Amino acid sequence: MASTLHKRDSMEASVETPLSTKPSSPRPDTYQPKKKASLTSLPPSVRNIIYKYALDTELVNTGLSNVSYTHSLDNATGILKFKASRSPFPIETGLFYVSKLISTEALRFFYSSNLFVRLSLFTSDARHAKTMLIDSGLLFAAPPASTLEASTHHALDVTLVEKDSEKKRATVMFPAQYLPRLINFVRSAGEVTKSWGSTRTLHLAMLNSYSFSTSRLQGDLLEPFRVLKGFSSVTISPTHTLPHYTSGLSSSLTTKTFSVQQWLETITELADLSDAARSTTPSGAANYPLSIEYASSVIVAFTYGFLTSAEAIHGPSHAEETFKAIQRLRWRVELGLGIALSLQHKALDSHKDWLVDAAIPARQRQQAAEDLLCAESSIDKALSLATDSPSPASNPWFLSLPVELIPPNKAGWFSEAERAQTWYALGVVHCSLGEYLFAAGAFERALGMWGQNDGVEKVERAFEKARCGIESDREGMFKGHVQPGSGLRRAARVARMNVGDE
């Protein structure tokens, strides 16, 4: 923050000193020069923009010529040495040495935004390693082996071993944005040579999480590998992964071909774990964050499955049953995700104005607003599937897949009770956000479909709460202060507010 300069005083002359018509100069002992702007004086949001353009490996390469590599073989070690035609990642390394604060921030941004992958190749034939690195189109850095071996800040270790070879031929580092190129090369090699995978073993290990959610990190670094098949052996470190996730992934990687049934079974297991974490059992309380992580991992697996194996999924064999199972599972996961997101903040919903209650810490209100808006969106997606809505706005598939890959859906695949449950969940979230008109409409629909089945009393109580909320908003409606959607807009403002460290 810039220092405040002392105001000049032109009346500092004493009685003995004649007054001058010229402005007096500032006294040397009171003058404070204005501090120069520096990185540390800038707001964090501005510093992040600087880091982005100086340290993001994709942005720093924009407009530059392609990189080509030459190589040589170290006869003493048998390791390939690569030399790039130019720096593959021309980042501003000077940021790492500016100050302790800037260095810490810059390094954190550099590693977390690029998600570096360290690839090690073991093979008796060095040409195989060279072919993979050059022909796959990877943009990689190949510093001295000792430097790479000492690295501890990267995101993922990938080790590929051919025929149990103990001869390391290459170790390189590249950003995760190039991981699909490596995977596509391996996939193509397996399709051309059917025995390719059976002669190789794969080892995967995530080293750092950078405070990202586990489902996001798995989705960026591990889930893309699921498309590969036929490895003789796969080991995946459970560190920074969800429990039981790695066993399902390693099983998928060792199967000979893609099986829709096995793919669905693996994803369903994750959905079951999400439901189990959300349920309160005699042995312990519900774990809503874990339930959210599992549900998110299912959605990621669905997306990658359709993007990489759409032809097999859309195949004629048992298509009707397959699509029904897929749509029902997606509905179940979206609904469960919305419920878990909302329930973890249920204790805050003490009165209708809790989102702007200064007695509740601002950061807590901000997180609750974000989660409730996500919950409303997720349940709305579930409702879109359960009602087979013609509008693509809330359809979860339209938001992540090309139109030609979206699976068909039918309203008949869902029961009235399931639609009632979805409407009820949506009404609960709207109540938490102070949208009592929307909530009352959702509860009314839920009651109409619920019938006399178990649990109808809770819907009636929720409907009454929504009606009471409407009554309490009556004066605000007359004055124009309360309108349909005002609660959602208020939550959006709270979610976007800049909350300083408390």
TrEMBL record:
Top-level taxon of origin = Eukaryota
Region named Disordered: 1-39
The UniProt keyword set, sorted, is: TPR repeat
InterPro entries reported in the protein's UniProt record: TPR_rpt
TPR repeat positions in this chain? 420-453
Q: Where is the composition biased (Basic and acidic residues)?
A: 1-11
Q: What is this protein called?
A: Uncharacterized protein
